[in-house]
C-alpha cells in the first residue's frame, strides 16, 4: 500500500520531494501528454498496479514488440513499463542485469531505453555502446499501428543519435567526439574494425595480383607482337 501511495505521489504535479533525476521528478522524463495517456490506459490500470522490480520482469518478458503510442494515441506496454520503471527507480545493478541478460530481448530494450532516459551522458555511451554488437531481431510498432522488423543494434543506435525515440523526447546527448576531447571517453573502437582491416587487406592483395597478371599479359603481348614482326620481315 505504501508503494502505491508513493507511486501516486510521484505522478502528482504538486510539490514532489522524492528522488530526482536530471534535477526533476523522474516521471516527468516522459511528457505530460504521454504520462496522461499511459495512466488512462487499460494496460497501466490492469498490468502495472502494485508491481515491483521482479514482477515487472514478468510483464516485460510477455512483450512482443516495442514502440511509443499508436492508433488513437494508445500507449504500448513498452511505454507503460517505462513509466513504471521511473516510479520504481531500481538500483543501477538491477538495471544492468535487465540490460545484459540474454534470454528476453524486450527486457533488454526496455532497460536500454531507461538507461538513455536516466543515466548521464558518459554512462549512456559506456553502457549502451556494447549493444551495438547485439543483432537480435525485434519488432517495433509504428504510430499508425503497423509493425516493422529491426535489430537491437539499430534501436540502440537510435537511442544514441536521435532526440526522439518511441514517441518520447530525449535529453540531447553531447557529441561523442566532444566527450573524447574532454577526456571523459576513450576513442571508440568499432567491433567491425578487424573485419574491415581484413577486407582491406584482401582487397589490396587482389589489386596486387591483378596488376601482376596484367603486367604478365602485356609482356606476352609484346613478345608475340615482336615475333610476328620478325616473321613478316623474313
Explain how this protein is built.
The chain has helices at 2-11, 32-39, 42-47, 53-61, 77-88, 92-100, 105-118, 121-128, 152-161, 176-181, 193-233, and strands at residues 66-67, 69-70, 74-75, 137-141, 147-151, 164-165, 168-169. The model is unreliable at 1-6 and 228-234 (pLDDT under 50). It contains 11 helices and 7 strands.
Keywords:
234 residues, mainly alpha, two-stranded antiparallel sheet, 9% strand, disordered N terminus, disordered C terminus
| Adjacency order of strands in the biggest sheet | 1-4-5
Counting H and I runs of at least 4 residues, what is the number of helices? 11
Radius of gyration: 28 Å
Distance between the termini: 112 Å
How would you sum up the major sheet? 3 strands, mixed
Which segments are poorly predicted (pLDDT under 50) over 5 or more consecutive residues? 1-6, 228-234
Mean pLDDT: 84
Beta-strand residue percentage: 5-15%
| Principal-axis shape | globular
In which range does the helix fraction lie? 55-70%
Number of strands: 7
Amino acid at each position: 500500500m505504501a508503494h502505491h501511495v508513493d507511486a501516486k505521489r510521484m505522478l502528482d504535479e504538486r510539490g514532489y520531494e522524492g528522488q530526482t533525476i536530471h534535477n526533476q521528478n523522474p516521471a516527468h522524463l516522459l511528457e505530460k501528454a504521454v504520462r496522461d495517456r499511459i495512466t488512462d490506459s487499460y494496460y497501466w490500470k490492469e498490468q502495472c498496479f502494485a508491481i515491483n522490480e521482479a514482477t515487472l520482469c514478468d510483464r516485460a518478458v510477455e512483450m512482443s514488440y516495442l514502440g511509443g503510442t499508436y492508433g488513437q494515441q494508445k500507449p504500448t506496454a513498452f511505454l507503460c513499463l517505462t513509466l513504471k520503471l521511473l516510479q520504481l527507480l531500481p538500483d543501477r545493478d538491477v538495471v544492468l542485469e535487465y540490460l545484459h541478460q540474454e534470454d528476453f530481448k524486450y527486457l533488454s530494450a526496455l532497460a536500454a531505453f531507461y538507461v538513455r532516459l536516466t543515466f548521464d551522458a558518459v554512462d549512456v555511451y559506456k553502457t549502451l555502446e556494447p549493444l551495438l554488437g547485439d543483432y537480435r531481431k525485434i519488432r517495433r510498432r509504428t504510430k499508425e499501428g503497423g509493425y516493422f522488423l529491426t535489430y537491437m543494434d539499430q534501436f540502440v543506435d537510435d537511442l544514441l543519435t536521435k532526440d526522439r525515440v518511441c514517441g518520447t523526447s530525449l535529453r540531447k546527448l553531447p557529441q561523442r567526439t566532444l566527450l573524447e576531447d574532454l577526456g571523459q571517453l576513450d576513442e571508440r573502437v568499432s567491433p567491425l574494425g578487424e573485419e574491415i582491416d581484413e577486407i582491406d587487406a584482401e582487397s589490396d592483395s587482389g589489386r596486387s595480383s591483378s596488376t601482376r597478371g596484367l603486367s604478365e599479359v602485356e609482356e606476352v603481348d609484346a613478345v608475340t607482337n615482336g615475333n610476328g614482326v620478325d616473321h613478316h620481315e623474313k
